[in-house]
User: What shape does this take?
Amino acid sequence: METLEFNENEKIIEKDKIEPYVYIIKSGKVKVSIAGYETTLTDETPDVFGLEALVGQPYTETCIASGYVKVIRCEKSEFMDVYAKTEVGKEALKSFMRRTAKALGWI
Amino acid sequence: MKIEGVIFKKGEIPKKLFKIVSGTVRETRNKTYHDLSKGDYVSLVEYLLEIPLEEDVVAMEESELIDVSYDEEYEEIIKKIISLRKILYETSVDLNNIVLDDFNFEEANIDNYLEQIESLLTLSGGELPEDKNEAIELIESIEDDKLLTKVNLVKKFVERFPEEQIGAKFLIETAAKVYIVLNDKYIAKSLLKKVLLTYSQLLDYCYEAVKTLESIYKDEGNIIFRRYSKMAKVLEVMIRGNA
Assistant: This one.
């Protein structure tokens, strides 16, 4: 688990790429785009992206730093052991679902 | 538990997460239903987001459900959400770069299907007159109980008189009747897609065809309707721009 820093417009994850990392926003904002739908994740919850790494699948969204951003980068086992059963894990799932439902026009 | 009928009621916020062991469960969002089967989660969106259901969620047949918790199913739920996103990408259309494939032509040559219908049912109902006005008169005179004959004649009319705008009108009207009277989605969709291929310069007719395609796909619970919904919006803007 390590903390990484990104500057404005730096790409953190890219759709269709397979990487073993899940990201938790420590500070700042991240722009997410999924099939034409765009939203911003923040450090309030804190928000998580890259959940696809937990099931070994390619990322389904592209995430770009909106300003200066600090993120915690975890590997699957680290996220599952430390966060999955906590509020962060639950909120991560909710946020992932919310972005999908919004992109589908369901909510 | 085994259940048939209503699982969650309209307006209810699901407090339990059920996974389907067997059977079929129907949920409805935006007036479009989605049938869930073995391995799917019932009302996953509403459960996770703690929001009320738009419509009743119903087991269409006797279905077996098990009560699960999100943390035990964490990775499986992620896989389900990813599969929804895959559908999302499959049904998205790049409006700046629409290709023929975006129209979902189930058959490479639409006419093949119509010809099969024609030969199978031998309902050709006579030849189309050579004279354009006589042909129009004949098509307009065919009653609803001879709809397949009308389909054949409209198809021939469009081939013989491709410059005649009334061909687009015939295709749309016949498609709507085929859908309503015969409930044949395939023929209806084929006729409507023929409008898009043959009369792509006639935006008003294309708009009408796309809107009808949108509602047919929506009725059958096929998420492809999203493509047509987007195309309709673009056509609407183009039509207004031309006005």
